[in-house]
Amino acid sequence: MDPGAPVTAVRVGVDKDTGVAVVTLDRPDRLNSVDLAMVRELRDVWRRLRFDDSVRAVVLTGAGERAFCTGIDRDAVVPQPDSPYMADDPLLGIGPKSNDLWKPVVAAVRGMACGGAFYLLGECDFLVADTTATFFDPHTTYGMVSAYESVLMAQLMPHGEAARTALMGTAERLSARRAHTIGLVTELTEPGGALAAATAAAGVIAGCPTEAVQGTVRALWAAKQASLAQGFAQAPHLIALGNLPPGGQAELFRARQREYRLR
């Protein structure tokens, strides 16, 4: 990796001895929400990691204590084609698999992971979290269809849990302990311990023969790729039919309740 590469919203550190790269979403003042600059940087990072043979495993995490990622930045302006048949979703291309990276990626989650964060979590190979982690999907609260997020959540947790998380909106959050119980999280640590635990697991994987590891990652992804493709094919139509106009969404966002139940 070129240490002088122009990366600002995403930090990359590589340990040449262990073969592990740590990719950090670095907008803690915005709860690591994704703006268009971060979209471009994530795509560039994943593509550069494909060609760095010193990196054999990756850890993805968020800066700060409050959030792993809170999805799209609400202040981001996403230009859209003037056609009912075309819609641009910038988050569709931010994950490692979407950028043809077949090196294993372990997520280290601290704080909130919600909404568009599932575009990233859904393309990680497994999740490690500390006890401060919470998971939720605010879409329905704000009059938006949870389409891509729901498809990805359905790959990560039992159907009922994915449905409840998607449908309850901001009224409820999935606790780290519940996430561990249902298998969304594979290892639970004390506060602040997720990054170290995820890095340790990635180090073990990086020590295995590279071709065998990457082939296994590809096989695991193939097991769910068909259902993802079918779900994603429906998503644009469901969003077009079910989303409130932007003004209605903004009104619901302003009127939102801050209280929530932790489950």
Automatic annotation (TrEMBL):
Molecular functions per Gene Ontology: catalytic activity
Protein name per the record: Enoyl-CoA hydratase
One Pfam family here: ECH_1
Domain of life: Bacteria
Family the entry assigns: Belongs to the enoyl-CoA hydratase/isomerase family.
